[in-house]
Design goal:
The complex is a heterodimer of chains A (357) and B (234). With 357 residues, chain A is α+β, with helices and mostly antiparallel strands. In chain A, 33% of the residues lie in helices and 31% in strands. Chain A has a six-stranded antiparallel sheet, covered by helices on one side. Chain B is mainly α. Chain B has one domain: Orthogonal Bundle (MetI-like fold), CATH 1.10.3720. Chain B is 82% helix and 0% strand. Chain B is built from twelve helices and no strands. Classes of the chains: A alpha+beta (357), B mainly alpha (234). At the A-B interface, helix 2, strand 8 and helix 5 of A face helix 8 and helix 9 of B. Bound molecules: adenosine-5'-triphosphate and magnesium ion.
């Protein structure tokens, strides 16, 4: 469990103060893949850097696993009532792996030496280090590149080396700061699959920063949405996708949903914005899939349901259906049909101004 | 060979033993001052990078003092520095003339320049690599040796070459004010006695030395960089 409580961090710049974290509290359960999403400057990197104390928050507290809680006082990390020294900070960091957008490998070291870096000076013998490096490279599927220099690797392969290096000391937690943002879609998918695999195999807790909702959708269980240094929305990925509460979360969801094409459809085709009926977006959660609710509503209230766009996706192994349709009928019947659908747990949303959100 | 030199450079030939001893005096000044400057320059360069704002061990007081001292000595022209340091040199090594007396001013002349060069070389290391090392729990010394110095080797070779060449220049200048070596040989036996062949020979030998240094530096720096093209067996 990673427990972050009431964290604040302000950067004092010549041009003014930047509140990078504002009263952020997050708990991350062991073994989850936890996503953090937000636009540039939202404070995502600052948040994860505060987890391994590369950045020390001004105030707040941090508890990682069974370690004693760390409290921040005036920008100093205190553990057990005493300021943490360099040694304590370094030992905390050795228990938390981190990977980066630009890999940050040592260019003048081979893959072997890069992965061996965190193992040296830990009291391990040379042959033990060599064995561990081989094991790690096998884990990330790069055994054949052991003696190669980073400049000879593709982006995806570099990130694999970085992952092997980050896992060298068997950390329970891996922090990933935009680790796939510099990769092409194929390599992105492969790296995400690897992270998921490591999460399952090793029970690794992963905190994953991204600005792409597709990444969250593909591997995260929970997500925190950040804006201006605050966590504005937090929850199961499925729930956030099904029913985003804030407009920023809705924007991220729309960015990864085929239903957002409705904006385009509406622009190009004015028939839907006419006064014949009402354009609605329906979301079918896992608890209402399977029943012919639309057919039943249409019969019961004597309306037509004209499907404009429809989509089903599988999130965390559960289906989430989405549909945009034009309801035609008398205004009373239409609103009765909408009420009926809402009663049956369908999330309904009117697209009044011709925009999804 | 002997006869040939005797013919084209008769004065050089008659002073040949002095020529060789001057050359070895220059070598001695170069290597002694160079070795000290190398260590101090690296040390101060590392200090500037480690203690600067945002450095791995930010300490503005140490940074400002080091920075100030380096700046002061960098702005004093070397000839003035030579004279200025005479009392200090005398009190440390007992004399301010000859090879022995030249080493301290050479170190003072060379270190500020080299420190700046080292600082630039180390600053060229991507911050991300430092960040990654910090995230792995690497100690300050670990980061200095295994990231900064290790990754900057090609750059460090390059700036060391540049500094070494400028140090050759400084030794000849020191020679002009009584330190001996090839510089004073060129003045006392060439210029003052109107022996152009001696001056020419001094120019030639300096050109050769600089050329060799530059080529060696380029070669080593390139070999240190070009890691993508070689594979090493473990
Ligand atoms: N070391 C620093 N010094 C000064 N300001 C900083 C520092 N680190 C972050 N900031 C500021 O804090 C705010 C949050 O930055 P942060 O890097 O956490 O954002 P982010 O969400 O990771 O953005 P991005 O997606 O661009 O990486 C920004 O306004 C940034 O300029
Ligand atoms: Mg960031």
């Amino acid at each position: 469990m990673i427990e972050i409580k009431n964290m604040n961090k302000t950067f004092h710049l010549k041009t003014g103060d930047v509140r990078a974290l504002e009263d952020v509290s997050v708990s991350i359960a062991d073994g989850t893949i936890y996503g953090v999403i937000g636009y540039s400057g939202a404070g995502k990197s600052t948040l994860v850097r505060c987890i391994n104390l590369l950045e020390v928050p001004d105030s707040g507290s941090l508890k990682i696993g069974s370690n004693e809680e760390i409290t921040m006082k005036d920008g100093i990390a205190m553990q057990g009532g005493k300021p943490m020294g360099e040694k304590q900070l370094n030992s905390l960091r050795r228990g938390i792996g981190m990977i980066f957008q630009h890999f940050n490998l040592l260019d003048r070291s081979t893959v072997f030496d890069n992965v061996a870096y965190p193992l040296k000076f830990t009291g391990m013998k040379k042959n033990q280090i060599a064995a561990r490096v081989r094991e790690l490279l096998e884990l990330v599927g790069l055994s054949d590149k052991i003696n190669v220099y980073p400049s000879q690797l593709s982006g995806g392969q570099k990130q694999r080396v970085a992952i092997a290096r980050a896992l060298a000391n068997n950390p329970a937690v891996l922090l990933s700061d935009e680790a796939t943002s510099a990769l092409d879609p194929e390599a992105t998918e492969a790296i995400l699959a690897l992270l998921k695999d490591l999460n399952r195999k090793l029970g690794l807790t992963i905190v994953l920063i991204t600005h792409e909702m597709a990444v969250i959708k593909s591997i995260c269980q929970r997500v925190a949405v950040m804006e201006n240094g605050r966590v504005v929305e937090e929850g199961e990925v499925y729930d956030v996708f099904a029913d985003p509460k804030t407009s920023i979360a809705a924007r991220f969801v729309a960015s990864a949903s085929p239903l957002s094409r409705i904006d385009k459809v509406l622009q190009e085709d004015s028939q839907f914005t006419g006064s014949h009926g009402k354009l609605v977006k329906l979301t079918f959660r896992k608890d209402c899939a399977g029943e012919p609710l639309i057919t039943m509503a249409a019969r019961k209230f004597n309306i037509n349901f004209n499907v404009v766009l429809a989509n089903v996706e599988i999130l965390q192994g559960a289906s989430l259906g989405g549909m945009i349709g034009l309801l035609e009928g008398t205004p009373e019947n239409i609103s009765a049909a909408i009420d009926y659908l809402t009663e049956n747990h369908v999330i309904t949303e009117e697209i009044a101004d011709g925009r999804l959100h | 060979m002997d006869a040939f030199i005797k013919q084209i450079a008769p004065n050089l030939y008659s002073y040949r033993t002095r020529f060789w001893s001057s050359l070895s005096a220059t070598g001695e000044m170069f290597f002694k001052a160079g070795a000290i400057a190398f260590v101090l320059g690296l040390l101060f360069g590392i200090m500037l990078v480690v203690f600067r704002k945002g450095g791995i061990r930010q300490n503005m007081i140490i940074y400002q003092i080091t920075n100030f001292v380096i700046n002061v000595f960098r702005s004093i022209p070397f000839v003035i520095l030579l004279i200025f340091l005479i009392p200090l040199t005398r009190s440390i090594v007992g004399t301010a003339i000859g090879v022995k007396g030249a080493i301290i001013p050479l170190v003072f002349g060379c270190v500020p320049f080299y420190t700046r060069q080292v600082e630039v070389a180390l600053s060229s290391i991507n911050e991300g690599k430092i960040e990654a090392a910090r995230s792995m729990g690497s100690s300050t010394f670990g980061i200095i040796f295994r990231v900064y110095l290790h990754e900057a080797v090609p750059e460090l070779i390059r700036v060391t070459t540049v500094t070494a060449i400028s140090l050759i220049g400084l030794t000849t200048m020191a020679g002009a004010v009584g330190a001996g070596g090839i510089g004073s040989f060129a003045i006392n036996y060439g210029q003052n006695q109107n022996h152009q062949d001696i001056v020419d020979a001094c120019v030639l030998i300096l050109l050769i030395i600089v050329f060799i240094m530059q080529s060696l530096g380029n070669l080593l720096s390139r070999r240190a960089t070009n890691r993508g093209l070689i594979t090493i067996k473990h």
